[in-house]
Write a structure and sequence with these properties.
single chain, 83 residues, alpha+beta, two-stranded parallel ribbon
């Protein structure tokens, strides 16, 4: 293994205990499940819970990530893409 490559044998337990690391699992479904969800939301005219929308620029994107890290949001935090 070259020196720049990460060690594949990391002791996750030691890392969790010594570095106060928080681990969060994220479970996602298939593309088909997402498409089914989008169709269902459109059919039922449901609105996604959006907490805040930030503009697509360097400063606002930094604020968006800081807002996510604060864990004060309820719902989605979005970045508005330019037209």
């Amino acid at each position: 293994m070259r020196k720049s490559e990460p060690d594949a044998n990391i002791d996750a337990t030691q890392l969790l205990l010594t570095k106060s690391v928080t681990v969060r699992g994220v479970q996602i479904g298939s593309k088909e499940m997402l498409e089914d969800l989008v169709r269902f939301i459109n059919k039922k005219k449901l609105r996604m819970p959006i907490d805040r929308v930030f503009n697509f620029n360097y400063k606002d994107i930094q604020h968006a990530f800081a807002y996510l890290e604060s864990r004060k949001h309820i719902g989605k935090v979005c970045i508005r893409m330019p037209d």
